[in-house]
Amino acid sequence: MSRKATVLFLKGQGFTTNILKSLIFVLATLCNFQIKTLILPQKYNSMNIHEYQGKEILKSFGVRVQEGIVADTPEEAVEAAKKLKETLNSDWVVVKAQIHAGGRGKGGGVKLAKNLEEVKQKATDIIGMQLVTPQTGPEGKKVNKVLIAQDVYYPGESETKEFYVSVLMDRAKGRNVIMYSTEGGMDIEEVAEKTPELIHKEEIDPKVGLQGFQTRKIAFNLGLSGAAFKDMTKFIAALYKAYEATDSSQFEINPVLKTSDDKILAVDAKVNLDENALYRHPDYAALRDESEEDPTEVEAGKSNLNYVKLDGNVGCMVNGAGLAMATMDVIKLAGGEPANFLDVGGTANAQTVKAGFNIILSDPNVKAILINIFGGIVRCDRVAQGVIDAYKEIGNIPVPIIVRLQGTNAEEAKKLIDESGLEVYSAILLKEAAALVTKVLS
Ligand code: GDP
Ligand code: MN
To answer: What is residue 346's predicted lDDT score, i.e. its pLDDT?
Structure first.
């Protein structure tokens, strides 16, 4: 028989988390568990920023970019276009929706405008639209700003050519990698699937950094020569410097453009800053755009809760990432599906429990809540009091709550819960809690 388990790849890369992850895999395999791996997307350990912000950062490190001015209204868009005409002599401009998702071109979020009337028209169309791209999901994302950018695909001496360049970390190797391809401007996942031989990788040894021969190899493999070759080596070197200095977790520049007069520049910029290093760059906090993030996750972040929404029906609130994973498995064994991953950390007081309740209850799929706290440092009776206080403060909670408290003062905690008169079931043993989950779901 094959049993089911969920293995959640955690945001944390801490020692215990990593050991736990390996242990769970070994155990699960030995016990013939069928493992469902839920790998959290990139965003959980990185902060996403807008294209215009990413380009500002790149520019400050000497990376050439398609120049532009950000605008909130069609009037500002027209002003921006006038300014680009004055300063760069750019007759045509592109109006680019600023949302935290790629594939904007395909969804109608990138439009060429050949005169000021067209700028106004296209900015009016794009600002406020609900932009749906292959990366936004069917509900799309609301556009609040546009980048008015110079047209860099102007005709000239030679053909323009689009490339793909990204810089990222290969965790298995512990090295940064520059990934690049002649197939720029397209969906890189598709290129990777159909023509993987067209994607190249250059590994960088952290002891010596990016070397000149490597930037030349990249320019050569991209089929460049002459001035464009030289400019590409400079572009790659500056891009890598920016990646390292900003502690980024990923840069993706698609397309990198060779203009008709052989200049190399970034037309697009997907910059992901490593959240774990943000404390070293306090000025980047201002780049955060919360309107682009999942509101419940923003709320959780404010209360210092580690929350990830899932699709199930049983909400859970746990202290410690390892226990949270085990609790999710218990929910599955009890016939439910976890509605979330929520680690309240070391402090399970009334305030954190209340924030946790509110976040879990904002999900309409939740039919029951399982609180599973091990009272090691924090005493169970204090947690129980916290649960009771939070419950009373919120008022009527429409779903049954199961509280399993184990550890210091577990008996006292159970008594507190049982005598509270609230619709809260208490348990000390995990199997009792599991039985209660099964009971309230049926
Ligand atoms: P994405 O669709 O979200 O990846 O947005 P990009 O910034 O990559 O732009 C999408 C596409 O718009 C590019 O691949 C180009 O083909 C096109 N584009 C971007 N800038 C210009 C420009 O200055 N002139 C012209 N003609 N097309 C552009
Ligand atoms: Mn792009």
So the answer is: 72
Whether 88 and 67 have beta carbons less than 8 Å apart is answered as yes
Task: Clarify whether residues 91 and 169 are in a common domain.
Answer: no
**Domain residue limits at 355:** 295-441
Alpha helix (H) ranges present in 195-294? 212-221, 226-245
Ligand 2 mean position to 25 CA, how many Å?
37
Q: 241: domain CATH number?
A: 3.30.470.20
| Pairwise CA distance, residues 397 & 401, whole Å | 9
**Residue 132's domain is classified under what CATH number?**
3.30.1490.20
The model carries a pTM of 0.77
Tell me the CA–centroid distance for residue 189 and ligand 2, in Å. 13
Total number of residues shown for the chain: 442
Distance CA 347, CA 364 (A): 26
SS3 content of the chain, % helix, strand, coil (to 5): 40, 25, 35
- The verdict on the CB of residue 108 being under 6 Å from ligand 1 is no
User: Whose Cα sits closest to atom 27 in ligand 1?
Assistant: 153
From 52, 91, 94, 95, the mutation candidate for ligand 1 (largest count of ligand atoms within 8 A of CB) is 94
pLDDT digits (tens, 9 = 90+) for 86-142: 999 989 999 999 999 999 999 999 999 999 999 999 999 999 999 999 999 898 999
pLDDT in tens, 195-217: 999 999 999 999 999 999 999 99
- Among the bound ligands, name the one nearest to the CA of residue 101: 1
Cα separation, 165 vs 250, whole angstroms = 11
- Alpha-carbon distances of 149 from 87, 114, 267, rounded to whole Å: 12, 12, 9
- Distance from the CA of 166 to the center of ligand 2, in angstroms? 11
Tokens matching residue 170: 């290969």
Model confidence pLDDT, tens digit, residues 151-205:
999 999 999 999 999 999 998 999 999 999 999 998 899 999 999 999 999 999 9
